[in-house]
Design goal:
Elements: H1 2-16, H2 19-22, H3 40-61, H4 65-77, H5 83-96, H6 99-112, H7 117-128, H8 141-150, H9 155-178, H10 182-215, E1 218-221, E2 225-229, E3 238-243, E4 247-254, E5 257-261, E6 267-271, E7 275-277
Antiparallel strand pairs: 1-4, 1-7, 2-3, 4-5, 5-6
Helix pairs in contact: 1-9, 3-4, 4-5, 5-6, 6-7, 9-10
């Protein structure tokens, strides 16, 4: 009987292994020095990104924030994205006076590096400077606590923790099945129970993070002010006005319009050109000089 149980556990562990590869995309760093395995062109790209990084930092130190922001965005457009890159970009945009893009960059930094306290603090400072004062709908305390726990790590990190807990669970079950001493059997049983709960919790956090990334519904208003309409039509009734830097959730799309929900629960339609999704690929600023 034990032999069959052990075989089933090994099969279960092997079946769960692919989850780690799908749980999150690898996060590239703007400061990495490795060369991608695609030849001389890739090496030149990395060298170019390193040079752009140095130029951007120099421009920032010299208070040329517009140029620094343009160079940081060029690095991001090449696919070398990281929490630190977007944190620097947010600082440059904030110093430049572009509040909406600063908030957008800080949110992207936190999406890649949820544990960055500097990005979280600067985001709070920037959001206090927005014109809209929206009181969020009260939520159940457990929901907020779980969201804060999930934000401690990225989806990839939660996936790794889930796999580690699953491996520990397998070891604990084997200890329970194979040990002859009662003390070790009890240890294996209680450890297996704890690790099962841990594996389930980390799996849920990783899955939730992945669903949110794929949904890509969080966006930031970039227009100085925009009227939110009752329907996707410019001649529709104005419901309320939002200003630069306000964060919204996109709940639907229709052509060039999207239905948005703000923190207090109000809904309406606005043009997609007036906002940008946090998960969208960064484009170099066309109006920024070097």
């Amino acid at each position: 009987m034990r032999r069959y149980l052990i075989t089933m556990l090994l099969a279960l562990c092997a079946a769960a292994m692919p989850f780690g590869a799908d749980a999150g995309e690898p996060e590239d760093s703007a400061e990495r020095t490795e060369t991608p395995a695609c030849g001389v062109a890739a090496e030149a790209c990395v060298c170019s990104a390193d040079a752009l990084w140095d130029r951007a930092n120099t421009a920032y130190i010299n208070n040329d924030f517009r140029t620094a922001a343009a160079l940081y965005e060029r690095i991001a457009a090449e696919g070398l994205q990281s929490g630190k890159l977007y944190y620097n970009l947010g600082n440059a945009r904030f110093k430049e006076g572009s509040l909406g893009r600063a908030i957008l960059s800080y949110r992207r930094a936190l999406a890649l590096d949820p544990g960055s306290e500097d990005a979280r603090y600067n985001l709070r400072v920037a959001e206090r400077m927005t014109k809209d004062r929206i009181e969020a709908v009260p939520e159940f305390f457990l929901t907020g606590w779980l969201r804060e726990c999930r934000a401690l790590l990225s989806g990839t990190a939660w996936a790794v923790c889930s796999l580690a807990a699953l491996g520990g669970l397998l070891a604990a079950v084997l200890l329970f099945l194979l040990s002859r001493r009662l003390l070790w059997r009890k240890t294996g049983f209680y450890a297996a129970c704890a690790l099962l709960l841990l594996a389930f919790a980390t799996f849920c956090f990783a899955s939730s993070d992945r669903r949110e990334r794929l949904r890509n519904a969080t966006a930031v208003v970039l227009a100085e002010s925009v009227a939110v309409k009752s329907s996707p039509d410019r001649s529709a009734t104005d419901l309320f006005v939002l200003h630069e830097g306000t964060t919204v959730e996109i709940s639907g799309e229709l052509g060039a319009w999207c239905e948005i929900t703000i923190a207090d629960g109000k809904r309406g339609w606005m043009e997609q050109a007036k906002l940008e999704r946090v998960g969208a690929t960064v484009r170099p600023a066309a109006d920024a000089g070097e």
